[in-house]
Structures are given as structure tokens and as C-alpha cells.
Amino acid sequence: MTSAGAAVLTDYREMIKGDKLVLRGLKFHGYHGVKPEERKLGQKFLIDVDAWMDLQPAGSSDRLSDTISYTAIYSIVRDVVEGAPHNLLESVAEQIASTVLGKFFQISAVRVQVGKPHVAVLGPIDYLGVEIVRHRTNVVQS
């Protein structure tokens, strides 16, 4: 592993030590891709999201107002995946991450994985896709 790769891995491991909200196996139909068939017929997309934030206040108070509702993040993911088409999965993931970080100041970092289970490759797969990690310091405030 290169020193740059090791630094990224170390940063990711440091980040995952904290509390996080977890959304796994979200499934939506969208029209993303560069091929005309993908834009016309659409396809299934699989999404996972981790959102790092301090969950101790909600754990102590047992009040929803002290955390972020999973359904709020779910709605962002749904709106992006079922919304305007993107050419690349990277762009879909980036829009999800930037929207989550832009809307919820409590979230310090977000990991978004976008997968396509139906890809024309020679061999069995669960899915192919992308994963991005964005920290609050990477967000451009508008």
C-alpha cells in the first residue's frame, strides 16, 4: 500500500470510531448512466449511508429532537436517486453526500455507497458501484 493509501485508510479508521447513523440496503429505481438504455428504461440502485455524529445526547435523553431521523436521510437519498438523471454513480453519491452535510450541521462526515446490481459483465456479481467519504470540511457552503 502506498503512503497516500495508508493515510486515507488511517483517516477512515479514525472516523469510524465515532457514533453514526446507519442506513443499509436502500433500493430505488433511477435513470442514471451514460448508455441510452439506462436513461430510457432505468434500473435498480442499492444505497448504503453512514452519517457520523454524536449520538450521546439522544441516547441520554431518549428524544428524537436530539438526533436526526433516519427518514430524513432516507428522503434525501430517494429524492436524489429517483430524481434528475446523472451520467455517473460518482455524481449521484456526491449529491447525496453534499445534501446530507448541507442540511444537517450535526453530521461531521458521511459515507455513501451507490451500487448497480444489473451490470453487463461476464461473471456473477452482487453489484458494482462507488463509495465516497466526505467530511464537513470538504463541503462548499452556498
TrEMBL record:
It is an enzyme of class 4 (lyase). GO terms for cellular component: cytoplasm. GO terms for molecular function: dihydroneopterin aldolase activity. One of its GO terms (biological process) is folic acid biosynthetic process. The keyword Nucleus does not apply. Its EC number is 4.1.2.25. Gene3D superfamilies: 3.30.1130.10. Pathway: Cofactor biosynthesis; tetrahydrofolate biosynthesis; 2-amino-4-hydroxy-6-hydroxymethyl-7,8-dihydropteridine diphosphate from 7,8-dihydroneopterin triphosphate: step 3/4. Pfam families: FolB. Residues 21-134 form the Dihydroneopterin aldolase/epimerase domain. Keywords: Folate biosynthesis, Lyase. The keyword Calcium does not apply. It catalyses: 7,8-dihydroneopterin = 6-hydroxymethyl-7,8-dihydropterin + glycolaldehyde. Homooctamer. Forms a hollow cylinder assembled from two ring-shaped tetramers. Catalyzes the conversion of 7,8-dihydroneopterin to 6-hydroxymethyl-7,8-dihydropterin. Catalyzes the conversion of 7,8-dihydroneopterin into 6-hydroxymethyl-7,8-dihydropterin, a biosynthetic precursor of the vitamin tetrahydrofolate. Can use L-threo-dihydroneopterin and D-erythro-dihydroneopterin as substrates for the formation of 6-hydroxymethyldihydropterin, but it can also catalyze the epimerization of carbon 2' of dihydroneopterin and dihydromonapterin. Belongs to the DHNA family. This is 7,8-dihydroneopterin aldolase. It comes from Sesamum indicum. The lineage of its organism: Eukaryota, Viridiplantae, Streptophyta, Embryophyta, Tracheophyta.
